[in-house]
Amino acid sequence: MVLRGYVPTSEETLQTLAALRLQSLNSDFSTHAPFPRLEELFPPHVLHARLPPPPHRPPAKCRGARLRAGLLAGGLWGQALAKQRAERDQRLRGRLREEGASTMAAIVEKWKLLQGMGRPEAMAAYVALVREWPGFGSTLFDVDLHAVRPWLGRALGQPWHWVALTPLSPQSPMSAGPQRLWLGIGAKAVSLYKPGEPEPLDSFCYGRISSFGASDSSTFRLSVEDRDLLFETSQVDEIAQLLNTYLASAGARRPQPQEPLTSPLSSEPTVLPQGLCPAAAPWQHRPPVGSSHS
């Protein structure tokens, strides 16, 4: 999750995590120790984010302009453009190598400071750093979020998956229509994160969730109190199975009558028993554990 960018934290902390991983794998620093590649220690997307964006090309304004551009692309002008792109790509690759070397040097310097730390201590320090993120322990899924007003479906007499998609509310931070978000499934709550942001946009304990289900292979529905949330994702089955697992676990800890759970592959929503969460308070930030890093 760290390497895929699913633990939002500072670059310095990511370097410290990489150094702790090296200490765990190789013990104290040595020039003869086997050295993993940088992408096995540090999120590659962080390095790519440092590179300048590609130049913006204004679109052609008319058919004649597009035709002239096409003719030019087939001649000397096209060859010149191809040469410019190749030179630019070479410069970007060189810049990426420089950024990678600089980051690796910083990681090695932090690794040297860990001399004498045993493998169990390095692993404990690594986990302590990651635990500082409030979403620690959740499984994150990339989703596109839509919100549906439930009363629209009832008024029009249409199934929920036919209702036009509308924002949550004018005041909601998720009110701009479909958005790429992280859906975090945890043991006590379901949370929505803006990618890269440490705090959730919203969080729902299981006591606030009335039902969930898969509409098709790419659409998942989550009903929370007075609103329905639709998620477009390629991991519908995984999300449903994980929710079923946590629900069954919560039901085992708090015995109470409940309806049988439906299969994750079913299009019928699973109705959740109420009372699995003592309160509907937002997710509270946990204090740092075992480390002063942020």
Short description:
The protein is 37% helix and 16% strand. It is of the alpha+beta class and 294 residues long.
Write the layout of secondary structure elements.
Blueprint: H1 11-26, H2 44-49, H3 63-73, H4 76-112, H5 119-131, E1 139-148, H6 150-156, E2 179-185, E3 189-193, E4 202-205, E5 209-216, E6 219-224, E7 227-232, H7 236-253, E8 270-271
Antiparallel strand pairs: 1-2, 1-7, 2-3, 3-4, 5-6, 5-8, 6-7
Helix pairs in contact: 1-4, 1-5
Index terms:
alpha+beta, Acyl-CoA Binding Protein, PH-domain like, 8 strands, 16% strand
Structure description:
Among the domains are: 96 residues, Acyl-CoA Binding Protein, CATH 1.20.80; 93 residues, Pleckstrin-homology domain (PH domain)/Phosphotyrosine-binding domain (PTB) (PH-domain like, Roll), CATH 2.30.29. The protein contains seven helices and eight strands, in the order αααααβαββββββαβ. The C terminus is likely disordered. Helix 1 packs across helix 4. An eight-stranded antiparallel β-sheet has the order 4-3-2-1-7-6-5-8, with helices on one face. By secondary structure, the chain is α+β, with helices and mostly antiparallel strands.
> So how many helices?
7
Strand content: 15-25%
Main sheet: strand order: 4-3-2-1-7-6-5-8
User: How is the main sheet built?
Assistant: 8 strands, antiparallel
User: What is the fold named in CATH at topology level of the domain at 2-51 and 87-132?
Assistant: Acyl-CoA Binding Protein
Low-confidence stretches: 151-176, 254-268, 270-294
> Span from first to last CA?
17 Å
What would you say the CATH architecture of the domain at 2-51 and 87-132 is?
Answer: Up-down Bundle
CATH class of the domain at 2-51 and 87-132: Mainly Alpha
